[in-house]
Amino acid sequence: MNEYCLAVYRIYDDKADFHKKAEGIAVGLTVGSWTDLPEARKEEMQKHLGRVVSVDIYDEAGTERYADIAIAYPDVNFSRDIPALLVTVFGKLSMDGKVKLMDLKFSQRFMSAFNGPKFGLPGVRKLLGVQDRPLLMSIFKSVIGHDLEALQEQFYQQALGGVDLIKDDEILFENPLTPIERRVEACMKAARLAEQETGQKLLYAVNLTGPTSNLAAQAKKAIDAGANALLFNVLAYGFDTLHELASNPEISVPIAAHPAMAGAMYPSPHYGISAKVLLGKLMRLAGADLVLFPSPYGSVVMPKDENLAIREVLLTEDVPNNYLFSLSAVPSAELHLKPSVPVPSAGIHPGLVPWIIRDFGTDVVVNAGGGVHGHPMGAAAGGRAFRQAIDAVLSSMTLTTYAEQPQNAELAAAIQAWGVKQ
Amino acid sequence: MNEYCLAVYRIYDDKADFHKKAEGIAVGLTVGSWTDLPEARKEEMQKHLGRVVSVDIYDEAGTERYADIAIAYPDVNFSRDIPALLVTVFGKLSMDGKVKLMDLKFSQRFMSAFNGPKFGLPGVRKLLGVQDRPLLMSIFKSVIGHDLEALQEQFYQQALGGVDLIKDDEILFENPLTPIERRVEACMKAARLAEQETGQKLLYAVNLTGPTSNLAAQAKKAIDAGANALLFNVLAYGFDTLHELASNPEISVPIAAHPAMAGAMYPSPHYGISAKVLLGKLMRLAGADLVLFPSPYGSVVMPKDENLAIREVLLTEDVPNNYLFSLSAVPSAELHLKPSVPVPSAGIHPGLVPWIIRDFGTDVVVNAGGGVHGHPMGAAAGGRAFRQAIDAVLSSMTLTTYAEQPQNAELAAAIQAWGVKQ
């Protein structure tokens, strides 16, 4: 039986016949030619032929003319891996004028090759023993050129503030001062010391870098040294490499996907791949347990609707959802992938926590760098201020009121430094 | 001693202080902060600090305000691999407003980890025994759903026309009808049969696909079956994977890099990575022996200046060229990488050959799909028409004059079908 993966494109063109263009894509990227084929051959080739599902034309005075075109690609045409899918639906087409890949839907059969996140939201919550509140992540700052002792101290200060996760700087690579296994040992020791103070578990996402063929070994080295999470610059290596790492049973810790390089592909209205696909669907399909993406609040911004679209496909939708061109099959339950944890990042301070929870709900990681390290009373106080802000929102109190309580002096200081977003 | 890799960005902003912005990048993407550091620490950290090399501001009425900003990054900050370099210079920055990575230059030390193309232009010419003329490549058409016999016949017809290289369709993946080793056997048999007719050697670039960790094994399987070249969708896997394949001594055949997905990154003026870097410098650095890219002639077009910039960095410049921030070191000869062969593709018919040679010189592959298969007298005649067009140009004759000779009927028919570009 035919099953199809669906691609939705936005194509800008002042005068193209969009229906003809859609037909050209559906045929050109599958069987190559159709009308020239003898009838007998057409019957055989039917199962390889792409189909135009819809063509919605937007042609209004004063705006650029475009169409949203949905094409269904028979999944028998490609192997069940992300490179094959992307090369099919957006390999050559990406270079053919103003065209952006807006959405992807996967057939049940294609999805059968993917397990998605090994931990996902429920697994990460379980590891941390935190069920009901947003998680809090802190980011190492200015670590290039620092030694193990300095890293350990910075880690300890962040951990003391009650954060749930600490992530490496994504630009910290293998180096003689802080090689991955030594970094893990030093930081996990600091985590244990802090836990004695705070009573709280902590995941340290150590940056997984180096040659592609050595990543799995490098991950195992880190895990053997005590690493309980990994950070990975997915787009610098390709989704298939994430998929292979996430599928590897020996990599027994959550993977946090960093969006480095994503800005080369999602922001243009005319070219590239939508943030929802790039940082949402494909990350979840490939197995990212947590996904970082630019928040709508900070200096590195992404429009809020794109943020919420990412959140939806990571978390709540039955995503990557099955698209069945025929109606004779129903997605089976075991194909459902665990949700990935959304991590809107950049420009986050405690005064934004009510907005984060309003926009993203409580199944979110509040992720802060400067908002922790730049706290007037230090990094430990920075973490506490965020935890207090989260407590305030969950208690349905305003930050300002909550900060008046003497035990919440750190939140008060944060509000004084950065204000409360109104 | 400090060595630096250089990144040049084009940043659009109506009113930014570009000098301040450049300083922010140089510090933010290296040591993180600078002015706050104690003097003693500054001395230690000096070697990790990024430097602003130049800021050229373009601010003219009626055009968008932008600046070209060059930043030098100390190569001690990252490991000697392309993911580390790209994540450093364009990881987070790619998401920070309208910014495009325009150029990259590599330090001698960074380049020491790269051997570049194993064959390159001289190696490919030697394998084919063709020194003095442009090479001719033909592309399989409409091969999805076809069996080995059909492929073999199509291959044979193309080969009879005197083409030097035949490439798989980049959307042909592992499939039960034509698995890679059977495809290679069938096509190489056709190549030998054709060689008995034409006396000419031929490279078949078979499409290397599937899971990342299996690519090397898959390549070896193809080579064991007789493959004498590979086609690879580099951007679907990442440059590091190409680098690893090209560095693998067991992969003893040239690799042709396909530009699938490149259109997600190079065409926007505001975002992404320039074609020169994406399809030029990084491809050569990573070891592509041949590089396909959209020609300036066909339907999938790229502006001619971008085409020529790719050509230059693949072929003639001492590229990827060393950038030394200090003047105390001179590039050593052994770091020079072999040139990669430029393959401008799409929309090529024999009437364009004079333009291709005028624009690209003779160190180029003339690459045709429809221009071979769509020839009124068939694919073998299509190849011959191209070879005749090449001969005409090298004999300093016009195509029309050359086509008047009775032995060049194929060229005459091609001209009748597609014309001669004036």
Automatic annotation (TrEMBL), chains A, B:
The lineage of its organism: Bacteria, Bacillati, Bacillota, Bacilli, Bacillales. Belongs to the RuBisCO large chain family. SUPFAM superfamilies: RuBisCo, C-terminal domain (SSF51649), RuBisCO, large subunit, small (N-terminal) domain (SSF54966). NCBIfam families: PRK09549.1 (NF007095), salvage_mtnW (TIGR03332). Residues 123-418 form the Ribulose bisphosphate carboxylase large subunit C-terminal domain. Residues 6-103 form the Ribulose bisphosphate carboxylase large subunit ferrodoxin-like N-terminal domain. This is 2,3-diketo-5-methylthiopentyl-1-phosphate enolase. It comes from Paenibacillus gansuensis. Its EC number is 5.3.2.5. GO terms for molecular function: 2,3-diketo-5-methylthiopentyl-1-phosphate enolase activity. Keywords: Amino-acid biosynthesis, Isomerase, Magnesium, Metal-binding, Methionine biosynthesis. It is an enzyme of class 5 (isomerase). InterPro entries: Diketo-Methiopentyl-P_enolase (IPR017717), RuBisCO (IPR033966), RuBisCO_lsu_C (IPR000685), RuBisCO_lsu_C_sf (IPR036376), RuBisCO_lsu_fd_N (IPR017443), RuBisCO_lsu_N_sf (IPR036422).
